[in-house]
Specification:
By secondary structure, the chain is mostly helical. It is built from 6 helices and 2 strands. Helix 5 (100-117) runs antiparallel to helix 6 (121-134). The chain starts with 9 loop residues before the first helix and ends in an 8-residue tail after the last helix.
Length: 142
């Protein structure tokens, strides 16, 4: 899990580590304050972990936090609906060959290659290529 708002907060992650270790069925906890991340080795499902965290005021799921804010929740849900509509139209017009993830992958990969040809290899090209692979449709249906 990632908790970006608490990134670099060693005190919070030490507290979080101690609290999560007390959970039943947790075999191991690793926290990394520099990255703002938590790794749990457990047989619990994600919902049980989030329920425990919410009960003990450790952290909340982003979706729950957004749902509590009517302005942000409303804007984000409208944007999500718009993107979903565009994705459906794109799939329809290409007979299912291209979706938004594939389009984003192509765009970011293309921009990464463009940056490489300009000699901008370390920062810009690598960031664009990483962005491209976050959209790569590994799990898409044939």
């Amino acid at each position: 899990m990632r908790i970006p708002r608490k990134r670099r907060d060693a005190t919070y992650f030490a507290f979080l580590h101690a609290c999560l270790e007390k959970m039943a069925e947790v075999r191991a906890v690793e926290t990394n304050p520099l990255l703002g991340s938590v790794l749990l080795v457990t047989s619990l499902c994600a919902e049980d972990i989030f329920a425990y965290a919410k009960r003990h005021q450790l952290f909340e799921k982003l979706e729950e936090k957004i749902a509590q804010d009517p302005i942000t929740g409303n804007i984000l849900s409208r944007v999500a609906r718009g993107v979903k509509k565009a994705d459906n139209r794109l799939k329809e017009s290409t007979n299912g060959m291209i979706d938004m993830k594939t389009l984003a992958f192509g765009a970011f990969a293309g921009l990464g290659i463009y940056q490489i040809t300009r000699g901008q290899v370390l920062a810009s090209a690598s960031a664009l290529m990483m962005s491209a692979f976050t959209f790569f449709p590994f799990d898409s249906d044939p």
